[in-house]
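During the reporting period the student researcher (J.K.) took over the structure-prediction task from the postdoctoral fellow and processed the backlog of single-chain submissions. One of the processed entries is reproduced below for the supervisory committee.
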Amino acid sequence: MIGVTDPRTIGAQIRMKMPFLTPLEARVMDTITGRNDLSLSTSLRAVSDDAGVSDAMIVKIAKKMGFNGFRELREALVVYKQTDVASLHSEISPEDSSADIVQKVFRTATQALEETMSILDIEAFDRAADLLYQAKVRDFYGVGGSAQIARDVSHKFLRIGLRSNVHDDSHMMLMSASLLDTQDVAVCFSHSGATSAIVDAARLARQNGARTIAITNYADAPITKIADIVLCSTAQGSPLLGENAAARIAQLNIMDAIFVAVAQRDLKRAESQLARTMGAVETKRNT
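J.K. obtained the following structure tokens:
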């Protein structure tokens, strides 16, 4: 089984590999994971008949997902479906009341947070905090919703006296990346991990000797082949919300934790700078 120590990781590990399946393989996996009657006694033939493919195709997909075969995939899914987090996500329907919508959106976000925490690489987390604390220049790259995460992190860092640059334009990313060196860090935010503007900037930053950190939803995405450090979020998608909404919350929480870890490396200075920056804007607040 895919290195399972925490059952909450199973759903995340499967979702991370889904974008790299063929359309047919993805449809088959959706059929398997969508079965409410899946149990340890469910036969390979029953699953293949339900999906409309051969037994060999099911085994092939199971191995592509990181399992030794169908039995291991079946066992992992049964174990996962018994966890508290597996039942948190449910699809939004036209008949939902406002209370239903609020509950479903919040529960999906809770699932993303719980499962992201279960797969977070703490060693990589610590290395990312060290790099960001020690860096001379901190470049944050992101487009669309990912740029909003970058701006939020940059704002927090400024509060404790750590300056950073946020770039959401492909030309500006490349120009800035071309000037980075071995004392600098580029943090690359990309939900898909395949956005060309982010991947190109990360590659150029790496070529110039800068260390690169990727924040993404997929462990096998193109950006992960370039980055020195990878921190993954995970979120279950829905037709209306997609994956990005819940994943954005998970990524914000990863970076909030990074912020605290960086501040902790020199807490006295961080507290001093925080007092200064808070004092600077105090007069702008309404009394």
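The committee noted the following: The chain has two domains: 9-85, 119-282.
J.K. will present the remaining backlog at the next meeting.
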